[in-house]
Amino acid sequence: MAFDKDTVFPRLYHLESSSSLRVLWALEELNETKGLEYSIKKIPRSMNAYPTKEAHPTGKAPILCIGPKPEEALAEAGHILAYLAKTYAEGMWAPDKEDQDRDAFFERFANASVLHKTDALLILEVPAQVYPLFLGYLGYFWYIPMMRRFKSDLKTLYKFMEDSLSDEKPWFAGKRRGLADFNAIWAMDIGSQRGYFDGKAFPKLQNWLDRVHALPAYQRALEKGGKFNVKKF
């Protein structure tokens, strides 16, 4: 992709109440610290599964356009975050040498193990919200045994995350915030809002979540991104 990062401003296609909030948070940090200018196109949350095909063939937000051509559009939140780190962050999110493996692991752990279990629970719960009363709750009670198993699995994952945080390394990227933390926030926001995650049982993990939520860049991302409610889609 041949373009000048100093003259081409990224454009984010942002879907409300979705994983693209973490990309918006990253863009706000880059705007604050590096002066990166960007634009945003907000897309309301709806049952329309492909609201952004004008920008990318997948039609799935987040999508980051870095030029006027279709091939200059990036999809997938984790991929976009890695691109922003490489292109604009100038090492700001790079872990110390001793934490490089830790950061790389938690990037993948957040988007695989934690998010997969969280999504599985979410998928089983959503029918009770979107289908007619009888059908929705019939399915909900049918899936209760599976949901209990997934919640138990998530507790194991939360315990591992809890034990990985310390005063010396308060971030999943290590001593300072990095890509692992940007990637982890989506699954943790779902877990927190929908009650899968009990902060009292995992105080260090709750502290991490509170610190992310208190960041000015995260707060601005919430303001600019519109509705962020994963309790009910």
UniProtKB/TrEMBL annotation:
The keyword Ubl conjugation does not apply. The chain crosses the membrane at residues 120-143. It comes from the Eukaryota. SUPFAM superfamilies: GST C-terminal domain-like, Thioredoxin-like. Pfam families: GST_C, GST_N_3. Keywords: Membrane, Transmembrane, Transmembrane helix. PROSITE patterns: GST_CTER (PS50405). Residues 116-233 form the GST C-terminal domain. PANTHER family: GLUTATHIONE S-TRANSFERASE 1, GLUTATHIONE S-TRANSFERASE-RELATED. Belongs to the GST superfamily. This is GST C-terminal domain-containing protein.
